[in-house]
Amino acid sequence: MAVSVIIGGQWGDEGKGKIVDLLSQKADIVARYQGGPNAGHTVVINGKEIILHQIPSGILWPHTNCVIGNGVVIDPRVFLEEVAFLKDQGVEIDDRLLISDRAHLILPYHRCLDTASEESQGSKKIGTTGRGIGPAYMDKVGRFGLRVCDLLDEQHLRTKITDILARHNKVLESIYNCHPIQAEDIVEQCLAFAQSIRDHITDASVYLNQAINDGKEILLEGAQGTMLDVDFGTYPFVTSSNPTAGGACIGTGLGPNRLDHIIGIVKAYTTRVGMGPLPTEFDAKFSEHIRQLGGEFGATTGRPRRCGWFDAVVVNNAVRVNGLTSLVITKLDVLDTLEEIKICTAYEYNGMVFEHYPADLKVQLGARPILEKHPGWLTSTTDIKSWENLPHNTKSYLNRLSELTGVKIGLVSVGPDRNQTIVVP
Ligand code: GDP
Ligand code: IMO
Ligand code: MG
Fold it and tell me: Each residue of 68-96: pLDDT tens digit?
């Protein structure tokens, strides 16, 4: 029995939802540990697509228990919509979903602050999902955020929301020229939310540690990706949490020695949504070509994703900061029709070669990728079920990715469906 962490090895949208769903077949518990409704995790079952934002992707298997850890920021409105959507799809949640009493809430003022801040930045904006993520985590580290446990005492809740709004309304009115938000509206929303989740609230750290002691199989589902990590990503063009393996401990209340496998999910190429550096980015025409082939449009915002070649500097950053123990390569099939495929092995900037992802944004933006060329395989891989049956050039490409990153590839995904996955021997 083991604890496995599923981590995005690039800028998010690597296909974590598909892989978590697949591995959930053999898991007892699936837990989210950071992020919030900025995530969009797609699971496709027999051609039917389900996108999850806040509830762990393991919920689609009836035998799993799912946990929203303390590191997650929860938007009550999005959460309740998601529960209703899942019920509509015939997914019974009942007592299978637990919510940490220490998780922080995203409330309407966070979304207003997120949008207003982005608008005020003009061309310097981050390109956030507009879901209030940054402002909610700012309240958390500012030490005045509202936590799930605060929902359980109405008088305390009312006082706390009044105090929080006294701060935020000043900013909304005087800096962003927005209307103030009424405390009573927020209190009502919170009380309604408290009513519907009361029975799901628990000390998730106690629950998860006990589950490990009992020999349960646990998956920790990361959101976003390593390059969006607030410490190790393309700062400031990042999210406000730690999607990396350390974040899995902080966001669940599990000690580092409890983690057994750290699985990095990476696309066979690279994408990102929003602003910021993407050193291997294609020109507009080729980007559009790959976007159409790969359906590269955001699962949360619908925005077109920017596309580029596989970047070993980026993935090696993920290997190092997460201590990845294996890789899953996704969306290999998207490259099926290309005559030539490139891999970035290092960057060149001002006559210097960078093998490790640089901290300086100026270098990240000006970095010229050093690319090596590989012949394409010009064969459809979507129906291939075994490693042996993959074309020679496909195996060479995958072997090279493994060689450059120094990590074994465990699975290769050749389509969105659960069954379009190859186990690497
Ligand atoms: P996540 O945020 O990491 O869970 O990824 P998203 O769900 O945002 O984006 C991944 C997209 O690629 C989704 O539309 C998936 O259905 C799709 N997908 C996942 N794996 C594959 C694959 O191997 N091939 C293809 N063609 N699509 C895939
Ligand atoms: P999943 O879990 C891709 C990006 C946004 C923006 C930056 C900050 O589906 O992989 P935020 O709203 O978090 O403050 O936005 O991070 N971003 C994602 N990009 N996949 C995601 O999640 C993302 N979540 C946030 O586009 O650039
Ligand atoms: Mg996504």
Answer: 999 999 999 999 999 999 999 999 998 99
Which ligand approaches the C-alpha of residue 266 most closely?
A: 1
Residue 114 and residue 216 in contact, taking contact as beta carbons nearer than 8 Å: no
Atom of ligand 1 nearest to the CA of 295: 14
Gap from CA of 39 to ligand 3 centroid (Å) = 5
Centre of ligand 1 to C-alpha 211, Å, is 30
- CA separation for the pair 324, 261 (Å, rounded): 8
Tokens for 87? 């019920």
Looking at residue 301, what is its pLDDT?
87
**Cβ < 6 Å from ligand 1: which residues?**
8, 12-18, 40-42, 44, 295, 299, 330-331, 333-334, 413-416
Please give the Cα distance from 82 to 324 (Å, whole number). Answer: 31
- Which residues are tagged catalytic? 13, 41
Q: Which long-range contacts (CB under 8 A, 24 or more apart) does 89-95 make?
A: 89/50, 91/59, 91/60, 92/62, 93/55, 93/59, 95/199, 95/200
Domains and CATH numbers, the chain: 3-100+208-262 (3.40.440.10), 104-196 (1.10.300.10), 266-423 (3.90.170.10)
Q: Kindly give the number of the ligand 2 atom that is closest to the alpha carbon of 8.
A: 10
State how far the Cα of 30 lies from the Cα of 28, in Å rounded to an integer. Answer: 7
Return the ligand number nearest the Cα of 37. Answer: 2
Residue 299's pLDDT band (cuts 50, 70, 90): confident
